[in-house]
Amino acid sequence: QVQLVESGGGLVQAGGSLRLSCALSGRPFSMYTIAWFRQIQGKERECVAANGNIDIDGSTWYGDSVKGRFTTSRDNAKNTLWMQMNDLKPEDTAMYFCAAAPFRPITSEQPQATDFGSWGQGTQVTVSS
């Protein structure tokens, strides 16, 4: 059984940076595509970034709203996916969740929450103006 634990959220001023981490345990890290979703209360979760499992090609996907500001990277030694978030904006305020799916390919289409069967508990990111 896969377990995901996020950390790194917090309160930051607009223009600041945060780095989120998603630690995976229970299964080989390399076989999982891992995505970051965010959710504002009352709205559906939206995927902002995805990092494909390295057994296929390790490709990445970013939503238009975060492209150029958010970057994901894998630390295989620590079974962790990092998401560096720069130039944060108040509209980035949300609960951020990481999710994992084995061997899910990365395409040009936005990943959907229904594509992922394993989820972390979430970490809150709040950006003040």
Keywords for this entry:
129 residues; mainly beta; seven-stranded mixed beta sheet; 11 strands
Radius of gyration: 14 Å
Question: How far apart are the termini?
Answer: 40 Å
Mean of residue pLDDT values: 94
- Helices and strands, in order, run as EEEEEEEEEEE
Largest sheet data? 7 strands, mixed
Tally of helical runs: 0
User: What's the count of strands?
Assistant: 11
Characterize the quaternary organization of these chains.
single chain
Gross geometry: globular
Helix proportion range: under 10%
Structural class: mainly beta
Strand content: over 45%
Give start-end ranges of low-pLDDT stretches. none
What does this 3D model show about the protein?
It contains no helices and eleven strands. It has strands at 3-7, 10-13, 18-25, 32-39, 46-51, 60-62, 70-75, 80-85, 94-102, 118-119, 123-128. The strands form two sheets. Strands 2, 4, 5, 6, 9, 10 and 11 form a seven-stranded mixed β-sheet that branches. Strand 5 and strand 6 form a beta hairpin. The N and C termini lie far apart (40 Å). The model has no long low-confidence stretch (mean pLDDT 94).
Write the layout of secondary structure elements.
Elements: E1 3-7, E2 10-13, E3 18-25, E4 32-39, E5 46-51, E6 60-62, E7 70-75, E8 80-85, E9 94-102, E10 118-119, E11 123-128
Parallel strand pairs: 2-11
Antiparallel strand pairs: 1-3, 3-8, 4-5, 4-9, 5-6, 7-8, 9-10, 9-11
Short description:
This protein is an all-beta fold and 129 residues long. It has strands at residues 3-7, 10-13, 18-25, 32-39, 46-51, 60-62, 70-75, 80-85, 94-102, 118-119, 123-128. The model has no long low-confidence stretch (mean pLDDT 94).
